Amino acid sequence: MKIVHKCGHTGYSSVFGTEEAIAKRVTELENGDCTDCWLRKQPPGFLIKPLGAAGVVVVASYCYTIREELSARGYYFTQRAWRKKLTTQAQEEAERLWITERGFSIAEYVKRKRPVKKKTLKVRAKRLGL
Ligand SMILES: [Zn+2]
């Protein structure tokens, strides 16, 4: 379905559901920016992910407005984010300082615990001869 967004750009969206639900969703889309404009308005966010002995990787998201700056700092764009590997503590500290001085926030990486599936437990038990 063709949508004219608040920003003036035209986009296409697949909208499903009842007539009422479709009308509601279309109004929401029309009152909002297109995806590109929305992304451009997001403040850049930085995440520092440890790589064990290899150091850390800085992952920067929503960086449309500072792409050239990141590129000049040695970041590379992959998997929908800007990344930079830092191998020493001094490099990490310097990067943290730059991010903070530029007024951006840093999030620390939190490893999510994945629940172990029942099937996996059974396989493990079998392997152990239980
Ligand atoms: Zn737009």
User: Low-confidence parts, pLDDT < 50 over ≥5 residues?
Assistant: none
Quaternary arrangement of the chains shown?
Answer: single chain
Strand order of the largest sheet: 5-6-4-3-7
Largest sheet: 5 strands, mixed
Ligands in the model, by name, code or SMILES, are: zinc ion
Distance between the termini: 57 Å
The helix fraction, in percent, is: 25-40%
**What is the strand content?**
15-25%
Task: Walk me through the structure.
- With 130 residues, this protein is α+β, with helices and mostly antiparallel strands.
- 37% of the residues lie in helices and 24% in strands.
- The protein has helices at 19-30, 35-41, 67-72, 89-101, 118-127; strands at residues 2-4, 10-12, 45-50, 56-61, 76-78, 81-86, 105-108.
- Strands 5-6-4-3-7 form a 5-stranded mixed beta sheet.
- The model has no long low-confidence stretch (mean pLDDT 91).
- Zinc ion (ZN) is lined by residues 5, 7, 9, 33-34, 36-37.
